[in-house]
């Protein structure tokens, strides 16, 4: 199996990659 | 305590006493005061009304007020604790507190569950997860065949949906997150440890010695 295959990743791990879930923008001037 | 708090209360609807907010959150009083400096700047960026609307929220996060995004909308909805369409200072501090490195693990699990339970039914349904996956793929430019998306959903629900009723309830989510702790990484903002140094001007308005 290819360890990078997306089918080995669960859906929430993928969703967590969204930059829109990263709130650090509040603190970056 | 009076002067700072009463002036802030007039200018900022929903402003709550920093001492009380500190007692209800993972922040110290100084950190709440430093967050007020950030809050003042965000809440005056488009309309200077002492409240954060969605446009100001997105502008602060992405430096771009036009970005329409499923996740950004959902986070705004969760920060809007009183469901008024705007975020007041109390909402802002209490919501950000969940992202503090010292916040209780259970609070982070609860917030992440609400985040992914898009329609607020008390369950994370397969259709919601698919919707979020598609949003992520659009945002990232990643292309996956619908068949692959379904395989990812099958695998995820096989692991997370223990009673196999097609939706993830709170207790299933708690177990799933325990088995996959990296899922909570988005729920911690290391920046929150340093807010008093990021916004040092709070000392000019501070009412407490800490």
Largest sheet of chain A: none
The largest interface is: A-B, 22 and 42 residues
Alpha carbon gyration radius of chain A: 13 Å
SSE order of chain B: HHHHHHHEHHEHH
Distance between the termini of chain B: 14 Å
Residue windows where pLDDT falls under 50 for at least 5 positions of chain B: none
**Strand order in the largest sheet of chain B:** 1-2
Q: Taking all residues together, what is the mean pLDDT of chain B?
A: 90
Q: Helical residue percent of chain A? A: 10-25%
Q: What portion of the residues of chain B fall into strands of 2 or more residues?
A: under 5%
Number of strands of chain B: 2
Total helix count of chain A?
A: 1
Task: Give the SSE order of chain A as H and E letters.
Answer: H
Structural class of chain B: mainly alpha
* DSSP E strands of chain A, number: 0
Distance between the termini of chain A: 43 Å
If you average the pLDDT of chain A, what whole number results?
A: 80
Indicate the overall shape of chain A: rod-shaped
- What is the overall number of helices of chain B? 11
Helix content of chain B: 55-70%
Question: In a nutshell, what does this entry contain?
Answer:
Chain A is mainly α and 29 residues long. Chain A has one helix at residues 11-15. Chain B has 210 residues and is mainly α.
Can you walk me through this structure?
The complex is a heterodimer of chains A (29) and B (210). With 29 residues, chain A is mostly helical. Chain A has one helix and no strands. The longest helix of chain A has 5 residues, at 11-15. Chain A starts with 10 loop residues before the first helix and ends in a 14-residue tail after the last helix. The mean pLDDT of chain A is 80. Chain B is mainly alpha-helical and 210 residues long. Chain B has eleven helices and two strands. Chain B has helices at 2-11, 18-24, 29-43, 54-62, 70-79, 89-97, 105-116, 126-140, 146-160, 170-179, 195-198; strands spanning 124-125, 167-168. Chain B has a two-stranded antiparallel ribbon. The radius of gyration of chain B is 19 Å and the shape is globular. At the A-B interface, helix 1 of A face helix 4, helix 5, helix 8 and helix 9 of B.
